[in-house]
Amino acid sequence: MADISISPTTGSLPEPAAQVRIRGYWESVWRRLRYDYVTLFCLALIILIVLSAVFAPWLTHFDPDKSSIANRLRPIGHPKYILGTDEQGRDLLTRMLWGGRISLMMGIVPVMIATVVGGLFGVVAGYYGGKVNMIIMRTMDVFFAFPSVLLAIAISGSLGGGIFNQMLTLTVVLVPPICRVAETATSQVRNMDFVDAARASGASTISIIFSHVIVNVMSPVLVYASTLVSAAILLASGLSFLGLGVQPPTADWGLMLSTLRQSIYVQPIVCAVPGLAILVTSIAFNLVSDGLRQAMDVKA
Amino acid sequence: MWIYALRRLLMTIPILLGVTIICFALVKIAPGDPIMSLLPPNASQADADRLRELYGLDKPVVVQYLIWLWQVLNGNLGTSIANNASVASEVIRAFGNTIVISVIAVVLAFILSMILGVTAAYRVGGIVDRFVTAISVFGISVPTFWLGVVLVIFFAVDLKWLPATGMGSGASASFNYFDWDDFKFAVMPIVALALPPLGIMTRTTRSTIAETLNQDFVQTLRAKGLGEHHVIMHAVRNALPQVLAMLGLQLGYLVGGSVLVETVFTWPGTGFLLNKAILTRDIPLLQGTILVLAIAFVLINLIVDLAQSLIDPRLKRG
Q1: N or C: lower Cβ tally within 10 Å for chain A?
Q2: Predicted ipTM?
């Protein structure tokens, strides 16, 4: 019990500061996260990777796309090219930084779009139930009949390469799983008393969905979406590796790995560098979403 | 049980129909007019119309779909643009080669993940658990094509122990697991394929077993003096249906998702076929391969669900 007794001497209410503070949801999440050093480290790593990609033009003075035949395949630790050069004599570090822009964008943007689209479909399906639910969810089931990599290759392979097609493909692949999570969460929420209360007090369906349902569905959906970032980065780099992403000479980690592969007998270690960036980024996103899930206490 | 099996079987039919619709749509979303690519640049409009009629492309989309579906049901997946070969026979041949490596990979991953997952779950938070968690995070996060390249760097370029690419004899029928001259080609593809399912299955096994070990019946088992070895066997028995369901799912993912690994090792399976179709923009080949793989995935899931309901009496949903 908080101290709510009226002080006998002054007869006034105690200072608000003396009351027991009830911690908000986000505050308790942060308290749990604060001691999770692995998650914090990975979060810092992600911020570092994002910043280095954003500020790529100011971090290096090399042109990422300009080749120079004289400087092909320099080893790592070369005095001028820290990470060596690729098969066309371009500075590898520069291309890694520039490539990070595309690779990170491919991990984050499609997940964001798919969260909105899939989330809305899921909420509508879960809230209305019945026929609407059946049509939406059975359509999603058909997409689940494809392993995600296969679906991505199918769509991307038909549409052809390019940034826009790649992003569209990833979004289509990510919508069904997010939709399913949102639908499950919504059908749990919609039977709760506060939704009935809102309906009884005359709130419209739209306002119930926006001010009661979405707020409660948000945290499981967001946590789930965060687990998809790493999957999206892997998927995107895989598509680029197959030549279905950005077109050369634009740098992208997956595409770099693919073009460097031909030089595997000349500079084996240099060939492994772009993939290492994919691996580190993917691990960092995976661990952060794990930590987030634990801190937010969501079962996914 | 039988009612459940029948219902599950019936549920598969609309899914399969949906799969064919998506595969049919793949040709439609491909940019460019397929007729124009077949004709010389100076062909007249009348020629184009005649060809369009010949291929049935002048009919409404629904009719086109039904005609195509009828052909598929008769085992005709069209002809490859690149070499005029029958897509069906190419896909079947490649499918066998994919099965050769993916089944071994998933079994290997399953056995290892059981061992790792159970030992980790026994002492959650211990050193073994941390080590196992690290392995599973690595497995989930690693890009398989990069892993393939790294394996080639170490074992083919540096150590020269294993061949970098290819399949040796080149046909699944004559592939012999116990002949090193055959098997050495499969070692690296199998390892690269096995790591992601190893990561996912280890994680699930660990959490399922850890959860089971916290249940009351485990305490009862210990209270009545059962040895730790037997207690763990009870927990494994309880977690088995869930782990098995995952095994099937992962096999499906491997069969469908081995494109990247097969590309790295030029393993002549379905993934390699897909890569070829993408490079040459051979849409009929792409469509046929995707269709076969997706149907395989649906059927594997069906079998797993049925097997699961057989093993786990709690799942008698019928």
Answers
A1: N
A2: 0.85
